[in-house]
Design brief:
By secondary structure, the protein is mostly helical. The protein contains 24 helices and twelve strands.
Length: about 625
């Protein structure tokens, strides 16, 4: 279970995360303190593993499947006729590092004398949310997973090397029980062990961990809403009235930051264009999140003038906002102006990708190439998903005219901050549950407004930390006023303007759809939650007057989308063969098939009663 090597690494890690000299000396001389230090190290190491395998989950899961199927972006270059067919994907590696750490903590504490066991219960309580969040992400994709018996082999006799799979129903019930236990421990423990700086999320503030546990309870309730509504609403009432409180400020947010030298993956992604209808919706409502979720296109004033000088046609969706002077030169922007006029999406249907009328979106390399005085450049007119949300080693060259200045954002990579749970999410869930009948104190409109404000402010803070291009200014504009105006940072009055839009007025009808749309936007940087929402809510909704579902037409027929990921067929040489076969049979899943029709019809437990894609909410 424990080795001298782990103890040594524990001491080094604890010291590196902020112990002062006296504390380190005390640890080094007291065996009880030594174990305490090792257990704190295990917690820190487990938190580090909550956001693991970041490259494959983004490269495959999110950009190839979840975002396109949720109608947030296309696949790279536009959706192909096979965009709904699954190939490679990744999952959270919770069994490789996370569970060995959390089980070590749990079993070590259970073996302690009663007095020490009581003081260490807070560390055991920490293991529950640490395990649950990434496990939920895996279950969202695959259904039943190994959880209750995971990682127990080193602590059992004989070793438990064939752990059972837990169904989603079992998982949700277990998680709610564990979260309640954790909340009770966090709020009622006397003289608990202090994590201090070894808690890289909340700095040892157990009250905030309790609020995060309440968010996890709401996540479970949201997944249960169409399969056990009474239980889901009861959980929402528990959270809204919890003595521990719930997440309701940016300082409550669970912001993952592995360390000062963690920048996310160093590899690039195949990122698609933003959904045309979605980007138009965000622009029309003056939603500041547009500026952070998607990248500006290349058509600033200088580039527009270069197209005019070269006699090359502007993209029509860019040209509509261009004002010319009497000589036919660029005079300024019409409509909402910078930076809003720099965001444009693309159609989603595979047939639209192949339609020559849409070359303005899908043949930009040919259409938007400009040659001036022997210098040539190609420009992008549409908006990709913001890569800086995922990795901060992303360098950016600002667009200028052919032969013009070279302006770069590079070599100043900040440590990546990632949202794993937020106060915005909490309030938006409460708005939903209030509309569905939960007996909770606030009004749905109050929860919605609070959630949207926090959502905007959180992603603005992420953009500032992750050093998005254009955040503080647009350096291509030499006039300081124009440069600041073209910046993407949150500006005074933008939130108030957004909250005044009819799309957020719950008294004007379609209230539940409006709340789900705001959840949809808030979940843009947590794709598992995004796809879960799309499946359980039926939004975007077909023929919606707010944010309509776009039909994925291919060869004149609408494509069928999967509702779960492919699960490989177990082989008889696998020690877990019988358990895997049983889990597949219990769920009614066919293994090793990528047929979208089968992956659509064979649904997970939480998804059995959910509406079809685009069908709209179940009131």
């Amino acid at each position: 279970m424990k080795s001298i090597y782990k103890i040594l690494f524990a001491l080094v890690f604890v010291f590196a995360w902020g112990c002062d000299k006296d504390e380190f000396a005390e640890l080094n001389s007291d065996p009880a303190k030594l174990q305490e230090g090792e257990l704190r190290f295990s917690i820190t190491k487990a938190v580090e593993q909550m956001y693991e395998n970041d490259y494959t989950t983004w490269f495959y899961n999110n950009f190839d499947y979840i975002y396109p199927w949720s109608q947030f972006t296309t696949q790279q270059g536009g959706n192909s006729p096979t965009f709904n067919v699954m190939e490679s994907y990744g999952t959270q590696y919770i069994y490789r590092e996370l569970f060995p750490q959390t089980r070590d903590v749990q079993y070590a504490i259970e073996a302690m004398p009663e007095a020490e066991k009581a003081r260490h219960q807070v560390l055991k309580a920490l293991t529950y949310p640490i395990q649950i969040l990434p496990a939920m992400a895996n279950s969202d994709l695959l259904g039943s997973i190994i959880f209750s018996e995971a990682g127990r082999a080193p602590f059992t006799n004989p070793p438990l090397i064939t752990p059972a799979y837990d169904s989603q129903e079992e998982l949700y019930n277990l998680w709610l029980t564990q979260l309640d236990e954790a909340i009770d421990i966090f709020t009622n423990s006397e003289n608990p062990i202090q994590m201090g700086n070894q808690d890289v999320i909340y700095g040892g503030d157990y009250a905030k961990w309790a609020k995060f546990c309440n968010l996890l309870k709401l996540k479970v309730a949201a997944r249960m809403i169409n399969v056990d509504r009474a239980r889901a609403l009861s959980v929402a009432e528990e959270v809204a009235n919890s003595p521990a409180g719930f997440m309701d400020a940016l300082t409550d947010d669970f912001i993952y930051n592995r360390g000062v030298k963690y920048y996310g993956t160093g590899n690039g992604f195949w990122i698609g264009y933003g959904n045309q209808v979605l980007i138009d919706f965000l622009r029309d409502n003056g939603d500041p999140r547009l500026k952070f979720l998607f990248k500006k296109n290349d058509f600033n004033a200088e580039v527009v003038q270069a197209f005019i000088d070269a006699g090359v046609d502007l993209p029509p969706y860019v040209e509509q906002y261009v004002s010319l002077d009497g000589d036919g030169n660029f005079a300024g922007w019409t409509g909402p102006g910078e930076p809003w006029v720099r965001y444009h999406g693309a159609p989603l249907a595979p047939d639209a990708t192949l339609d020559s009328d849409n070359d303005i979106y899908f043949n930009q390399g040919t259409l938007y190439r400009v040659n001036l005085n022997g210098a040539e450049k190609t420009y992008s007119a549409t908006s990709l998903f913001s890569e800086k949300l995922v990795r901060t080693t992303y360098d950016y060259t600002y667009p200028t005219k052919p032969g013009g200045r070279v302006i770069e954002l590079k070599d100043n990579d900040p440590p990546l901050h990632v949202i794993l749970g937020s106060s915005a999410e909490t309030n938006l869930y409460l708005a939903e549950f209030k509309l569905l009948g939960a007996n909770i104190p606030g009004t749905a409109q109050e929860y919605l407004n609070r959630g949207v404000e926090l959502s905007v402010r959180r992603i603005d803070a992420l953009a500032e930390n992750n050093q998005f291009p254009y955040y503080s200014n647009d350096p291509v504009y030499t006039d300081p006023v124009e440069s600041e105006q073209a910046s993407t940072k949150l500006k005074e009055g933008e939130i108030a303007n957004l909250l005044s839009q009819p799309a957020l007025d719950l008294s004007a009808g379609d209230a539940l759809e409006k709340v789900y749309i705001q959840q949809y936007l808030n979940f843009a940087s947590t794709p598992n939650d995004l796809w879960t929402l799309v499946r359980r809510s039926g939004i975007p909704k077909r023929n919606s007057a707010i944010l309509p579902w776009q039909e994925f037409i291919s060869s004149g027929t609408e494509e069928t989308l999967p509702r779960r990921f492919v699960i490989g067929a177990p082989t008889e040489d696998d020690l877990l063969y019988q358990n895997k076969v049983q889990a597949l049979e219990d769920q009614g899943f066919t293994p090793s098939v990528s047929s979208p029709e089968i992956l659509n019809s064979e649904r997970m437990w939480f998804d059995e009663n959910n509406p079809d894609y685009g069908a709209g909410p179940i009131e």
